Amino acid sequence: MSDISHPPRDGATPGKGWFESVGIGHLLLGFFLLVYPAMASDFFLTQIGGYSLILGMIALSLMLLAGYGGMVSLAQITVAGAAGYVVAIFGENNSGVYGFGWPWWVYGPLAILIASFASALIGWIAVRTEGIYTIMITLAVATACFYFAQQNYALFNGFPGYNGLRAPEVFGLNWRDPVPFYYLCLANAVVAYVAVLYGARSTFGLTLQAIRDNQRRMRSIGFDVTAHKVFAWWLAGLIAGAAGILLVWFNGRISPGTIAVGPSINILVIAIIGGLRHPIGPFLGAVIVTLMQTFAIDIIGAERFNTLIGMVFLVIVLISPDGILGLWERFKPRAGAEDWRSSLGTSAGKVENQGRKT
Amino acid sequence: MSETSRSTSDPLGQGQGITFRQVLLVGALILFAIFVWMVFAQWPEWLDAILISKKAFLSAILNGLTLAGLYFLVASGFTLVFGLMRNVNLAHGSLYLLGAYVGYEFANWTGYWLLGLAAGFLVLAVVGLVMQVLVFRRLEGDDLRQTLVSIGISVVAADLMLAYWGGTTYQFLTPSWLSGAVFLPVVTAVRSNGSEVFLAYPFYRLVVLGAAIVIGVGLWLLINRTRIGSMIRAGVDDRDMLAASGVNVHFVFAIVFALGAGLAGLAGVVGGSALSIAPGEDVRYLLASLVVVIVGGMGSIVGAAIGALIIGLAEQIGLVYFPTYGVVLTFVIMVVTLAIRPQGIMGRSM
């Protein structure tokens, strides 16, 4: 299945050139994102810029699991929601339930920590099985969490959830204002992006990818497969948790609707549309989906947005399993240096490898 | 392998006098006897104090059984499709809801509930056939993409159904011969004048339970006693070998997918009549089928029955005795099953 040997990477291939080109791409992208506030209106800054970055981060946590670990999770929004509920309960809210009013530098890290452990727990449940089961189990977990949050008033305040959550004022800046909030999201997203990009080349990242490619072989070599996978879930939980805090600050509220099945599928849609081969994919997908969400009113009316996004998703899955990135890979001049394997399905990977061998 | 382990463990078991299996059997018998006593005996005060009342307890059990029947109808299609095609069809909940709507329209149009039921099954079977032939066949062997496509279909289907049928809740009018309550030969209380109060229960729900049992037995016979069933079982075991031995695998796949989708549609009509039809039900029944199948074991009809029984009972008992934490109970059952037996109760090891 997945033990088709990779073509050996010979030093003569222009691998270095690829890195350079991406380096230039990163510089250009970074420059654009930094000066973006200068040219965008408040609406474009927060509703599109900030929101895309937040969704992109949550999708990035999915990309980390699916792309490098081969575990497609539908529970990433649940993890983000866990962080959001921690913010609502330990921070301040207007709902008159809990809201301990702790300072942001306590509840922030606490929220990320709790979210990461929630993620590790979900991961620990999910890695009991493998392959396609992961998607089922995480969907069941996400749905169960949604129903539980909706029914439980003691902890989650039931259907209404918590209102009046806002970013704090720190260093004399009101982080709710569009420009500071945008830069806050950008900073978080960049940290997460760079961490994933470099983490993938670390020993742990390479081990994880090896486990994805051949779990049995890695186990027989002596690696603790379960521990590596659960640790990947924990790391993904850190990213999703940070994004969850930003998400509740963005929305100003958290309710069961935030962690419902629709949003959780939305995250998967974003990650798949963008592509799971590179950490930039989720952000790409998030920008596309957010733009579509905003301008769908002009195309088919706001009511039928889900039909539109579902259709786009179907088309992407059917024609390009690697999303927009895959389309780009297909049509750009082939450098042929990259050794990426398609994380989506083995047959796609097979075709790719065979294609490269010839 | 099991043969050798049995032959080695048997003398050991005889030496100890009692085997583990016998202990389990005795335990199950005792539990069953307690249950029978609880159903038929007059409850003492302390038992009422623990379990609220005999009526509440028995209603929870009966509702649980009915719900289990409904869950079985939904989940059996899901598990059949997975077992044969390795296709996790996450649009299964949408098939349920569409079946309910189609059945509703037909029953309204013709005036016969049974025609609605038949339409729910047939229309959805055709829909399933089309899905399999046009979409899933193209992605054969690529589990993840099949699942992703089914997610996309469910998103689009939910939205289109919302567009057509709106957000209102529909309620079937069950025919008069199915409505009303029946008195079961179980005494729940004795009045002060000595007359006995029997347990009343909606007749329709008993019919649901009976229908689920009949369909379950029918499925079991189909799978285990017919030629097409043996093809299906062979396909579950080794798809390539089945194809190599001259069976038209795609034909078998199409039949099974149509059957699974049709069962979901049938369950939609049955469930829509027992409860109601509204947007969002698709997710509820998708979750139910997922949990039932995870607990019961993927690809096994018997597993689906066991899983449905456990989840249905747990949900209704949870609803009565610890409301708002009922979902947690379902969840805990799933986690415990995964921890002890990741492949599910009747599932084969992966």
What brief labels describe this structure?
heterodimer, A: 358 residues, mainly alpha, two-stranded antiparallel ribbon, disordered N terminus, disordered C terminus, B: 350 residues, two-stranded antiparallel sheet, 73% helix, globular
Task: Characterise this structure.
The complex is a heterodimer of chains A (358) and B (350). By secondary structure, chain A is mostly helical. Chain A has one domain (40-350). Chain A is 69% helix and 1% strand. Chain A has 14 helices and two strands, in the order H-H-H-H-H-E-E-H-H-H-H-H-H-H-H-H. Chain A has a two-stranded antiparallel ribbon. The radius of gyration of chain A is 20 Å and the shape is globular. Chain B has 14 helices and two strands. In chain B, a hairpin with a 5-residue loop joins strand 1 and strand 2. In chain B, helix 4 (54-85) packs antiparallel against helix 11 and helix 4 (54-85) crosses helix 12. Residues 1-14 of chain B have low confidence and may be disordered. With 350 residues, chain B is mostly helical. Chain B has a domain at 66-189 and 196-295.
Q: What structural class do helix, strand and pairing data of chain B support?
A: mainly alpha
Mean pLDDT of chain A: 79
**E-strand count of chain B:** 2
Oligomer: heterodimer
Secondary structure layout plus pairing:
The complex is a heterodimer of chains A (358) and B (350).
Chain A: H1 15-39, H2 42-69, H3 76-90, H4 104-126, H5 133-151, E1 169-170, E2 173-174, H6 178-199, H7 203-213, H8 215-221, H9 225-251, H10 261-274, H11 280-299, H12 305-319, H13 323-331, H14 346-357
Antiparallel strand pairs in A: 1-2
Helix pairs in contact in A: 2-6, 2-9, 2-10, 2-11, 3-4, 3-9, 4-5, 4-9, 6-9, 7-8, 7-9, 10-11
Chain B: H1 2-16, H2 20-40, H3 45-51, H4 54-85, H5 92-110, H6 113-134, H7 143-165, E1 181-190, E2 196-202, H8 203-225, H9 227-237, H10 239-244, H11 249-274, H12 281-296, H13 301-321, H14 326-340
Antiparallel strand pairs in B: 1-2
